[in-house]
Amino acid sequence: MPNIIDKENDYRNIIVSEIFYDEKFNCRGRPDPMTCKDLADDIQMNGRIQPIVVQPYDEIDGKKWRILCGHRRFIAETIWLHTTVLPCKVNHKEMDVEQALIFNLAENVQRASLNIMQEANSIKHFFDKGLGAKEISEKLNLSYGWCQVRVMLLQLSPDVQGMADDELLTQTQIRDFFSMKHDVARSNKFIKDIKASKEKGTKHAVTAKVKGKETKRIRNKGEIVELQAYLARQFGHGLTTRVLAWCQGGITDGEMLATVKEICKDRELDYIAPVEGSLA
């Protein structure tokens, strides 16, 4: 069957063997073919609702197109329906790897078709590059709260991530797990409580019990450094991280005051110098 080109929208019928299935562009990861059987049945009964989106590709012999969106549809069509020619929408915009990932994520998030672990994995590329929740939210034009929970999830144990992938966790529970990620015993108990609740069919979600009031104490340098790194990942560098750097001896009094003076200027505030010797 020849390709049919609609010049206005550039929809084409493309031979399946010419399409490259590139897993790194699928924020879901490679789907299990068994999970695509219901989708195949729906396509067979009701027809295709949306075409697969592809882009021109010439890096592998015999392949002319690479999938940008529609990886599950591709699996459903090719494995279960044995389709040999697929109607596709061609995207001719040049994209680097990050732009393609963003394109794939936007399409899936807008359709609300991912679970929270898949959503977390969809931003893992950016997290692995050292971006915090605030930077990722700005780069992807997503809410900070949405990114924050998923960045937290990426830092939790495989057991907790597996529960998220099985849709057993609420966002509140993910935050609870993050707050206790260094307390293995408490985290394991929380896992057992959640699983037991699910098995009993308990209506209300299990929440972590608040630990007893902690004793106030002076923090050591290692704890200050850890908090500084955490805040930098969450909010980026600013006055708070500079203060913590000063507390641990990472910057001088003069450098600290220079930061305060600069921020006052940016915020159009009057800079008032401290009493001489008060920072010593």
Secondary structure layout plus pairing:
Blueprint: E1 11-15, E2 19-20, H1 37-46, E3 52-56, E4 65-69, H2 71-80, E5 85-90, H3 97-110, H4 116-122, H5 124-128, H6 133-140, H7 144-154, H8 158-165, H9 171-179, H10 184-200, H11 221-235, H12 239-247, H13 253-266
Parallel strand pairs: 2-4, 3-5
Antiparallel strand pairs: 1-5, 3-4
Order of helix and strand elements from N to C terminus: EEHEEHEHHHHHHHHHHH
Give the CATH class of the largest domain.
Alpha Beta
Strand order of the largest sheet: 1-5-3-4-2
Low-confidence stretches: 4-8
Q: CATH superfamily of the largest domain, called what?
A: Conserved hypothetical protein from pyrococcus furiosus pfu- 392566-001, ParB domain
The biggest beta sheet reads:
5 strands, mixed
Number of strands: 5
Radius of gyration, CA atoms, in whole angstroms: 25 Å
Task: Enumerate how many helices there are, as a single number.
Answer: 13
Mean pLDDT: 84
Between the first and last Cα atoms, what is the distance in angstroms?
A: 81 Å
Helix content: 40-55%
Measured by DSSP, the beta-strand proportion falls in 5-15%
Q: Architecture of the largest domain, according to CATH?
A: Alpha-Beta Complex
Q: Domain count, please report it.
A: 3
CATH fold-level label of the largest domain: Conserved hypothetical protein from pyrococcus furiosus pfu- 392566-001, ParB domain
